[in-house]
From TrEMBL:
<keyword id="KW-1188">Viral release from host cell</keyword>
<keyword id="KW-0231">Viral genome packaging</keyword>
<dbReference type="GO" id="GO:0051276">
    <property type="term" value="P:chromosome organization"/>
</dbReference>
<dbReference type="Pfam" id="PF03592">
    <property type="entry name" value="Terminase_2"/>
</dbReference>
<dbReference type="InterPro" id="IPR005335">
    <property type="entry name" value="Terminase_ssu"/>
</dbReference>
<protein>
    <submittedName>
        <fullName>Phage terminase small subunit</fullName>
    </submittedName>
</protein>
<dbReference type="InterPro" id="IPR038713">
    <property type="entry name" value="Terminase_Gp1_N_sf"/>
</dbReference>
<dbReference type="InterPro" id="IPR052404">
    <property type="entry name" value="SPP1-like_terminase"/>
</dbReference>
Length: 167
């Protein structure tokens, strides 16, 4: 699969941050307007050869780094489904922090930090709500786009009987 030099530059730049507009402007420096770069970058992403090159390079990176969708989802799930009781328990009215050697790998992954503060040991967990949001997006549970298809106009029906006010 042979790409033109500028297509290869575009694809390699795109792989840095997945920003087609920026990548297009690097590959084609004469283009100054973001709108033009966005449209043409989008067209290049649909080019069969460019898309195949990007997919192949992403696959190589995935193998090399061992960062896969499954691994990311597992990490998010560890954060999203962590419970406070995994890390501390209340015994006789006192809070007891669990020994970290008792935690499994999944529980450890949910920890953002542990420090000794003014009031004792503090355990901070990663953002559970954000992890749930990202998992929901991955699963297609949220639709942030307003779908206005099939919306009809309002029809006002005047069905109030007329009365005779002469009486």
């Amino acid at each position: 699969m042979e790409l033109a030099e500028k297509q290869k530059v575009f694809a390699d730049e795109y792989l840095i941050d997945l920003n087609a507009t920026r990548a297009y402007k690097v590959a084609y420096p004469r283009v100054k307007k973001d709108e033009v770069a966005a449209v043409n970058g989008s067209k290049l992403l649909r080019n069969t050869k460019v898309a195949a090159y990007i997919a192949e390079r992403m696959q190589e990176r995935q193998k090399r780094t061992e960062v896969t969708q499954d691994r990311v989802v597992r990490e998010l799930a560890a954060i999203a489904f962590a419970r406070a009781t995994d890390y501390a328990e209340v015994i006789g009215g006192a809070v007891h922090i669990k020994d970290t050697s008792e935690l499994d790998d999944e529980q450890v992954r949910a920890i953002a930090g542990i420090k000794e503060g003014a009031n004792g040991i503090e355990i901070k967990l990663n953002d559970k709500e954000k992890a749930l949001e990202l998992l929901g997006r991955h699963l297609g549970m949220w639709n942030d786009k307003l779908d206005v298809k099939g919306v009809e106009g309002v029809v006002i029906v005047d069905d109030i009987p007329k009365t005779d006010n002469t009486g």
